[in-house]
Amino acid sequence: MTTINQPIGIFDSGVGGLTILKSLLQQAPEEAYIYLADSGYAPYGDRDKEYIIHRAGLVTDFLLNRGAKLIVIACNTATGAAITTLRNRYDVPFVGVEPAVKPAALRSKTGHIGVLATRQTFQGEHFQRTAGLHAREIEVHVQEGQGLVEWIESGMEDEDWIRQQLSGYLVPLLEQNIDQLVLGCTHYPWLISYMKQLLPENIEIHDPAPAVARQVLRVLQSCHLYRSPGVSVAPQFYTTGQAGFLNRFVKEHLNLNAQSGTISLS
Ligand code: DGL
Question: Is the shortest distance between the CB of 170 and ligand 1 below 6 Å?
Answer without folding.
Answer: no
